[in-house]
Amino acid sequence: MNTKSTKQGVLCRTVLFGSIVAANFATVNTASAAVLEEIIVTAQKRAESLQETPLSISAMTSSDIENKGVAELTDLFASTPGVSGYEAPSSRGNISISMRGISAGNANSVSVDPANAIYIDGIFLGKSSGNGVDAMDLERIEVLKGPQGTLYGRNSTGGAINFITKKPQEELGAKVKVSAGDYGYRAANARVDVPLSDDLGISLSGYKRERDHLYDNSRAGGDGFENIDRSGGRFSLAWRPTDAVTVDYSYSRDELDENGQGLDVVGFNPMGAGVLAAPGFPNNVSVLSRDRINAVAATKAGLGFLPQVAEVQQLDAWMTDYLAYANDQLSSTSKRPSKFSNDMDQTSSNEVNGHSLSVAWQVDDLGVFGDVEFKSITGVREVENFNQGDIDGMDNSVNGGVIHELPLLTIGGLFFDSISPNVPAANEFAVGQALVNAILARGDAPVFSNFAHIDHQQFSQELQMVGATDSLEYAIGVYYYDDESEFRNNRTASFPLASSATSSHDLTTEASSVFAQATWTPADYSDWSFTGGLRYTHEKKTIDYLWRSSSNPFGFFGGPVADNYVVDELAETQAEVAGVFGKSFEENFYNLSGKFTVQYIINDDMNVFATYSTGYRSGGFNGDFYDSVNDNADAFNEETIESYEIGLKSDLLDGRARFNASVYTYEYTDLQVSTLLPQSNGSVTSAITNAGVAERYGVEASLEVAATDALILTLSYNYIHGDYEEYPDSVGSTLDGGQVLEMSNIAQRGMSPSNQLMAGVDWTILDKGDSSLHLSLNGSWSTETVPITASVGNYDTNGNRLPDTPVVFEQATVDERTIVNGRLAWNLDTDSGNFTLALWGKNMLDDEHRNFGFNYGDALGLNLVQYGEPRTWGVDLIWEM
């Protein structure tokens, strides 16, 4: 029997009238139910049973969100199978998401489009900037896995995450929650629902969340790392002017003002020709080299033969401090430090404003079209994002800090007349003295500091026609999207050797698409259904390069070194970079994506499906890099994907158990990969390249069991395999031999553990009618992975200052981890409302793990990592009526 067709009319009407209530989305009421309840999702633009929808979906209800402590996007990494990611270095609230091995890359860059689409009430978030602010008023979260190119369109090659908020309720209601915990955690949020008439209601909500720093700063007077300071508010309106028309509007504002992550130096790259003898050369070069330590020690040993002027003595003292620091870092690479370092505070701020307007008109029995809903979804989103970061993990101040080996060895070389054969020894010595005094005058010698400002504005409009007849369910629509993104920055690298510079740029996108998808259930074969869909997209992208630099063409021999550096406020007053500033480029992209699914309903409790689907991720321009050799923008092609998937969905043991599984394969073409690109002046930029071809496959399985009327056990497993079939080779300078390092067998899938296991327990320990005690316990284990596809470098090994030897560095891995979160809640129903007192803990085993890392290449030589949060705990007090 085709249960899908028998429920079709009810489900269609449910979504048309927008009257799905939160209870429909609960997996089970553990206090009284003996079976798992039906879960309703709207992943295909209509209300459907999750078990009957031929998609791989994970759904989280409002109670799940509460029990699992999901307050922001990063909380999904330990609570949602197959989802991982990281918060971009030197930022807070810019999150890179990975699903089924598909990662989005640098979330701090407006040049990078998401690979996994995020939607809030049907509004697509065009960039990753500001996507990690707190979530408010969530009714549920739906995670759709696999390419969603037909209904969700561009930039959903890995999948899509739908956040659906609660609409204003028909009755007066309120909820207040206050929280406190360790590290000075304190939070409060409140919501009130006010019906103004039978057909008009509003809701108001707001939150404030604060926490002291998780880690102290070893720099005297420096702010700590990873605090919380965020707030927001939301206004929603629901109007039902007639039985057939619904209007939903919402406005939200979120603010964040926090200090970023601590970064730890866990290794040093070899220097110069030393790379030839380094362990792992050339495709897995060890990052535990002592070359830099030995070079500083050798230079220090010779300082006694120089005139003992103040600058030489100062250099000797700095070298002593550096040697102690570097040796200590190499001896503690496997431990999470109790303190981190910087020479300027890591600060991040976000201001995010969003407007959403949804208008739906339901028409019953529209002839051959059946029951139809016409819907308009309009969205406006504005993001102001600022990140200030010293992202080298070092305190480079002259009082209590350490000066990096690059200026130390350069100054030493000047003192020993070994920098330039064209400059007299006395002049070199004087320049060396000037560099020492410039550092003293400034008070520090920052290795790499960055100030980045993002101003992003977007508008989207979608029109849908969603309908159903006796044998056909369909969705037809058109979509329009445009955005404008301004990126302004200032980078200061290796003072006093390099300069201040910007890679500022403006980017715009204009995209439009038309789509259609239909599911046909033949009357004579009612156990079978066939779904087909297509989406055609055209988009145009433009870029304006606005680079500026204060660099002196003669380097530190050309004049006062301090003149090469400006404060952030003056970044846009620096000189225009000739040949780059003002260059504009435009590119059009076209794509046809589709899917075809066959579903067979074995019985009322079990069905299988097979899907072929495609998707694409937009091409574009990388504003952080310019192809000066070819005098062209650093452009990259669109990324396309083909997927084959077979899935099973089943309810077992008379509804007390639920087992779902799927097997899938992916084939990418022109896969986009973000890599760190060290520059000759010691700075680092983010480069985007098309990686060629990648083939991957994976297995997903989940089991949910109502062991008793009061106990639910869940278990899920995710496996993914595959790296790259084709990947661009790394090539040395063509002026010096052009050595080639083949990368296809070296490049690895980044930020995607091969194995992930999750388990959960939801147990109503005690239920006495008006009082209950509930335990929610969730564990997540995943294997180690690498943070990026490949960490590459290009060395000058013969001293002619041409990078002749390409190498790949060993990566500091993203660790294997076991994260356990839990919540114990006591609920009491009274005439004055429902009260809940809950004790919660996150990372209760205090698992120490790296969650991202990167390498600064041969010039700066630093390898850095950032860590997941330590164990935290807190208490919630909730009142609801």
Q: In a nutshell, what does this entry contain?
A:
The chain is mainly β and about 900 residues long.
How would you describe the overall organization of this protein?
There is one protein chain. The protein is mainly beta. It has two domains: 3-268 and 337-399 and 445-880, TonB-dependent receptor, beta-barrel domain (Maltoporin, Chain A), CATH 2.40.170.20; 289-332 and 405-439, no CATH class. It has seven helices and 48 strands. The protein has a 22-stranded antiparallel barrel. Strand 40 (755-767) and strand 41 form a beta hairpin. The longest helix has 21 residues, at 310-330.
Backbone structural class: mainly beta
Compute the number of strand runs. 48
- The helicity comes to under 10%
Poorly predicted runs are: 1-33
Major β-sheet annotation: 22 strands, antiparallel, barrel
Mean pLDDT: 92
Corresponding CATH superfamily of the largest domain? TonB-dependent receptor, beta-barrel domain
Radius of gyration from CA coordinates:
29 Å
Strand content: over 45%
Known CATH architecture of the largest domain: Beta Barrel
How many domains? The number is: 2
CATH class of the largest domain: Mainly Beta
Ends apart, CA distance between termini: 42 Å
Helix count?
Answer: 7
Q: What fold name goes in the CATH topology slot of the largest domain?
A: Maltoporin, Chain A
> What is the 3D form?
globular
Defining key terms:
881 residues; mainly beta; Maltoporin, Chain A; 22-stranded antiparallel beta barrel; 7 helices; globular; disordered N terminus
